[in-house]
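Letters spell out the chain; the tokens describe the backbone. To illustrate:

===
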Amino acid sequence: MTRKAILRGVGHYLPDRVVENAEMETMVDTTDAWIKSRSGIERRHFAAEGQLTSDLAIKAANAALEDAGFSADQIDAVVVATSTPDTTFPSVGTIVQGALGTQGFAFDVQAVCAGFVYAMSTANAFITSGQANRVLVIGAETFSRIMNWEDRTTCVLFGDGAGAVVLEGGDGDAGILSTDLNSDGQYRDLLYVDGGVSSTQTTGVLVMQGKEVFRHAVEKLAQTAETALEKAGLSSDDVDWIVPHQANSRIITRTAQKMGVSMDRVVMTVQDHGNTSAASIPLALSVAKSEGKFKPGQVIVMEAIGGGLAWGAVVLRL
């Protein structure tokens, strides 16, 4: 049988500080009603002073390892999806490796909000090719550090957090069935950070053309999910759960409608942590599993879009 990357464990971590919409009203010119109507977000978590992206990643990784029943030294590779690393280098992945004591190799993937899908696809390639047997895949972000607090349309949308999964190679029906990755650099100015090492030598802050991103998101998310399902020999009728990038409740709802999937088959957690970029899908996976939503044999579609523009989807059978 064809070797597959099987999901063995999930975990997540959210920083202790919870910032409700009411608190955002004291920080910028906004209201709870405006934030909810535009995004569905009710609260988000912010990392504490001195708390780094790697700190969040390590906690989520430990939770996923515990859920999988593995020790760190049984892991062959660590792939971290992040756009907010601790430092320019080394990678967050190697920092996590050093802290946990995993074997093999570790590195970061940068595809912004699509990062976790890209990281899952990368891990899948390692496992199916035999280069690794067990891979720890993490999405971790501290987006509160790159917010423009003068822009009330964007700073209310994002939060900090981390999610992780453990994948293991094996035979059978379960595992990643297909992936689909895309990007189009002509849209790079729709969502970006206006700083960088070789340009300004500063971190910069997030800039987003919200209406344009929304328009592209619904179309491209539905398209990549349908393409991934077609690659797996499935259709939207075969999907038990969609676990989308948790950016905006309106995008999530519109994408499900476009795919013909009812909202009772969609995992939605954006209201509780905002847009955590690459962390949002594994966060949602972990929350949904803790709530008992998933059952063996079910088909899950994960899809995301982020700056680049970069977007993609993963089809997984539990």
